[in-house]
């Protein structure tokens, strides 16, 4: 009888880091000869991912199988996962502190608080725990977890290197300096800090500039509205809220970018940093959470900075050829490490402990 490694997810959306990780993991498992399906709560499947997963209620594991749950928020998938007779793997992607969402979405606050409250219980009920970064692993160890394995978030260049969407280029024909942010529009990302820094950069340093903010607003619609109001109050027409982008659209945004900038306050890893380095876009990121691990010595990191200080840092990177070249070289070195990673071998070794 063929081996099975199934996954159960709280949601499934194109461009979502957990969803992409699940798809990449499934591809590796299937390439090894094992069977693998993804089961997801159908209430949280984006239109572009319809048909790529199975309904959560159809999942039924066997004692000889393995089931993986990617944990970051409370959902019906958690109970389905815990009820399975299969060997259980908890992949911890980090739980965003609920306080970031307070005042924006009380429902999400409740889900995050529940996930945090159940974390120790869930860890105790599984056969093994993987974390996508040492930052996440350290959090679990502080809660009493033993023998946590670190399995860094998967990056697939094949899934990412697509022909850019020409419609994106057609929108931005005027040659300006493009600062890019990619990620969910969620309060922990501190996009308001980025907008404030851009306001200083645009008005004082470089009038021929724009800020491209690419990512879904579904996580926190009220936060997205606040960001739109902030840009309007600051009279910044060159703040472009691009919202969700297809893989082809995302490829175009990275091609347009002169620098990738994030002021995010909390990240378990942050895959857009890897995407930016892969596309040879200089990265400027706050030194928080799992981002130093993702960059691995690449890019340029900063601690707390005022809007003026971040604007000056952006200007320095873009105006000093030697500094920019050094950043790109550090990123190329990091990408060599990532591209030489034997993810299939790592996964095989981890699963071998359970078979």
Could you estimate the helical fraction of the residues in percent? Answer: 40-55%
Strand order of the largest sheet: 3-2-1-4-5-6-7
Overall 3D form: globular
Question: What is the count of β-strands?
Answer: 13
Characterise this structure.
The protein is α/β, with parallel strands linked by helices and 355 residues long. It has two domains: 5-154, Glycogen Phosphorylase B (Rossmann fold), CATH 3.40.50; 159-339, 3-Layer(aba) Sandwich (Rossmann fold). The chain has helices spanning 17-31, 76-83, 106-124, 134-142, 157-160, 166-171, 191-205, 221-233, 247-256, 271-278, 291-295, 307-319, 321-339, 343-352, and strands at 5-9, 38-40, 54-55, 66-71, 87-92, 128-131, 149-150, 177-182, 209-214, 239-243, 259-262, 283-286, 300-302. The strands form two sheets. Strands 3-2-1-4-5-6-7 form a seven-stranded parallel β-sheet, sandwiched between helices. A six-stranded parallel β-sheet has the order 10-9-8-11-12-13, sandwiched between helices. Helix 7 (191-205) crosses helix 12 (307-319) and helix 12 (307-319) crosses helix 13 (321-339).
